[in-house]
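I am writing to request your help with a piece of structural work I have in hand. I set the record out below, with my sincere thanks for your time.
___
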Amino acid sequence: MRTRLAIKLHSLLERHFPERRVFLKSDNDTRFIRLSSETQVIAVAGVAVFVGWTAVATAILLMDSIGSGNFREQAKRDQATYQERLNVLSAERDMRASEALMAQDRFNTALEQISTMQSELLASENRRRELETGIEVIQTTLRATMKQREDARLELASLKQEDGADAYMANVSNPAQMDFMTQALARTALERDQIAADAKDALEQRDDLELEIRLMQERSDEIFRQLEEAMVISVEPLDKMFRQAGMPTDRIIEEVRRGYSGMGGPLTPISFSTRGEELTPDEVRANTLLQQMDQLNLYRIAAEKAPFASPVNAVVRYTSGFGTRRDPKTGGRRMHNGADFAGAHGTDIFATADGVVTHAGWQSGFGRLVKIKHAFGIETLYAHNTKIRVKVGQRVSRGDHIADMGSTGRSTGTHLHYEVRVNGKPVNPMTYIKAARNVF
């Protein structure tokens, strides 16, 4: 059965691929190579496979070349778009920085005006009290003088009634008594005239003092109004800044107040004492303003202790933000717990708030790292530095130079990795920096 099938298959191949012989002739001999049908079929199949493989490989290479060219062009376009966006962001950042400086100047000017107005307010209040005391003294003197004048008149009338007409004439006939009476009447007349003049002067002084008090009251009202407006302008931006950063102002202010509660300290509120009397409207307004000034001071202290400042003041690029991103080393998706600022090697790095240095040295992955502990459970980290300029336990203030930018640790280039942690949990540091753009 197999033989018949083989014979039929061979016959079929013979019809399409007949046996061929290739003769090879030399000078002395002639040889030939016999090519059977099966050999020819195998050769044709091999050639067909080779040609097909060559065509497929060529098509794949062409497609890869075209695709890579498009990818490169797209990458170039994306890079150009990204660079343009970075330039726009850099210009916007510079504009915001200039606006922040102008706002800081306005804020300082407002504080100076508030201090001046506060001094004027206290001086005017003291002057008003002195004037009120002077009026009371003049009125008391006037009442005493009027009483003395009435007593003198009553005494003269009683003398006339007691002596009667005859006794009076007898006394008049006595020259010594007549002189005494004449002198007494003359003194009484002089005292009466003096009392009348003093009363007239007291009334004039009272009118002048009342006019001066009215003018001082109007000026005090104007000072109060300006101070109240200044308080609103000064406190509202600070309150908004804390709320935008997610910091509850009531708890923050109370915590600062507890830390600055020493008796007689610079933050102890000043109030007008009334010695148990009912408060006047001016005293109520003055106490309210002084409480607002105390609150403003607490806000300023709290702002110094929270990381609202930028860690770099030089020209830098914001290269990576807070959140999930493509890892520059492995290419995978990983959480990025801070913000990256790329700049020149050795760029100055500054503390963003008052605090105490808790770490200043090498840490795996972060390279040369500085950690600062602040108030309100906040901690800031400054990583990949080339040089550290502080030591553990050192107390720093906002704006102090703490390190130089570098590329130590797990880094692809010179940059600052900046983190903010609240109670150990990383948060977006740009939240604090953006919240303070129009305040500092």
In short: The first strand starts at residue 20 and ends at 25. The first helix runs from residue 2 to 16.
